[in-house]
Amino acid sequence: MSQFTAEALLLLVTALWGGTFVIIKTALGEIPPLTFTFYRFLLAAILALLIWPRAARGWNRAFAGRGAILGALFGTGFLLQAGGLATTTATTSAFITSSAVVFVPFVFRIVERTKIRPLHIVSVCFVILGLYFFTQPGVEGPSAGDLLTLGSAMVWAIYITYIDVWTREISDRPHLLNGLVLIQFIVTAVLSGLAALVLESNAFVTTVSFRVAMGLVYCTVFASVFATWIQTRFQRFTHPVRASIIFTAEPIFAALVAWMTIGEEMKSIQGVGAAIMILAIVVPDIIVAYRNRR
Fold this sequence. Notes:
mainly alpha
């Protein structure tokens, strides 16, 4: 698979993730955030096992350990994000989540002990600039939800790096790649279930409204099973820093969904920020393509 195709698929994943912020924020009015996360990934694990029955075979201790670590990172990121959404807006949550791009190059350098490419540094700088205009800092101080979401962004940076490193060795064994997806869902369901028991007085509500049900269907099928499968299977065809830069388009998709569904409007300065972020994603590919032709 070409790098361009892989990055196009990752952009599709980003669009699917962007749609979850409004959906989850709306659902949280009727169901606690950790309970929603538990149901989401319990259903995702069941669906993944039905789709890929071979995914539960061929595990050894090292593979299961790596899957558990990825699952712990994956789950912690979602729990922090879900908790943050309870006290911050969907758009703000999406933008702060995108700050993971700032941390990925440094995590990757520590893990792989390699130098950071100049093109990646330039892209990250422009993404930060775009996020600056988009979030309009200084208007209000950070809320508890903002800080939880920032914590999730740091966790995502570690996750993005390790999923790239650990999927290379099993790239020719699709059932093991699917197994990693399954383990991540199981660990996340367990973590969120335990967290809900401890932190939510009305955990595991049994009455599910149509709005919550539709939110679970979207988040389970499209934003979890399909999106995580694509990321686990195809992110290795690009650099993890490039992947993190592509994922910064998530708030743009989130803002578009919010505008189309609940009427949130984007200010002109936010439009400038969105344009800068898009250029930070697209221009490096154009430069690489030009160099390859020479």
